[in-house]
Amino acid sequence: MxxxxxxxxxxxxxxxxxxxxxxxxxxxxxxxxPLLRRLTVxxxxxxxxxHVCGATLVLEYLQLHYCDLTESVINIxxxxxxxxxxxxxxxxxWFNDVPRLVEAKFMHHFACEVSCITxxxxxxxxxxxxxxxxxxxxxxxxxxxxxxxxxxSSLYKHGYQK
Length: 162
Hints:
This protein is mostly beta strands. The protein has helices at 23-32, 153-157, and strands at residues 13-17, 20-21, 38-42, 45-46, 50-53, 61-65, 74-77, 83-87, 93-95, 103-107, 123-128, 147-152. InterPro entries: At1g61320/At1g61330-like, LRR_At1g61320_AtMIF1, LRR_dom_sf.
């Protein structure tokens, strides 16, 4: 998508909608936009693994929503990240160093890969379809959770709006 990119040192928010984006493209934006605080990728095709990683990232908000991930893996290690909104299947989402993450919105799957962030979460939103089992024996404890919303996403497919 990008080819050769020049630094955009003042860019603080980037929104990509209906794009074909590689993990390398996202890495370039993170590298060449040192003040980027909000990154949104919606209704796009992610063509390769996404690595949102770096000790110097100032990124606070990450949204990968309604994206075609196919076989891609999302690896997140961002010390300033405080909020995520992500669609991913089990095995596709991995968190490493996200000490400030307090708000998470997951669509369709709340996989065991996120158990490393549950102790700090204060707000959790999960959208599930009818066929998904939510309450299992392996559901993690969340001692700091202050607000939780669980939505039946299949209702939205049938025209329900709120």
